[in-house]
Design a protein that fits this description.
3-stranded antiparallel β-sheet; about 280 residues; globular; about 20% strand
Length: about 280
Amino acid sequence: MFGRAKPEKSSTTGNSGRDDIGDVGDVDDIERPTGPLSEEERFRFDLQGYLVRRGALSRDELTTLRKAVADIDYAPPADTIQSQRIGGYLHRDFAFQNLMDHPAVIDVVTELCGSYARLDHYYGIVMAPNTSGLWIHGGAAPFDPAQYYLFAQGRIHTGLIAVAWSLVDAPAGTGGFTCIPGSHKSNFGLPETVDYGHELVTDVALKAGDMLVFTEAIVHGTATWKGDEERQLLFYKYSPGNSSWGSEVRAGISDPLLSTLTKRQQRLCQLPSVGYHKPVNADD
């Protein structure tokens, strides 16, 4: 973080008095997954449409992120999707900024979205116990030029991908992220008879510190959260360099904030284009 200005800190005492971040979970002392997809990971992602990198965050990173989220003065989440989302927080802490090109994700992003990948948009999800989430949606059909999954010329090509950093444990059966594995290759649209509880829909268990990546071409959704504590997840979504799904310019990142980012993070914030677009990992 050499040469970077210190981000603006919140002057609040936390969201509705939530100063106790609680247990950050069982973060094992393991070798952190970094770098490009392994052969097995690539096989899993192509087969399933999603992948989990276990223990991507260290205990220190996880603790810092939990504290940074606690410092955001958001209202208690309710049943509406709007109440469960927080945004505009990158300026608050380097910990949020560092997730943009974290060692566990940057090579995955450039493999899936190409060397000119860009951060399309970002937001956090907070859910109170026993509140419902986002309905089942997505899928490969009909074809969406912004959210697709293709394999051609020996490599994967994706439209929008989602990277989710789990800040709490989400065991199987507690709700949260669900999907239909393999549906990113389906040739037919999602039948109206398929919803939560259907045999095709699978819970994806996550532990605090895990990183989930999935193609937005997969059928997915957020089931009712049944965990004992507030669900906390940070989403960073990336597109190929010539594509934009979100409507905010540079993911809503202001010029003053842009100037505090590293060169690589700034390249992730380039406007969607073909001409004059610099690769994420350029030498300058």
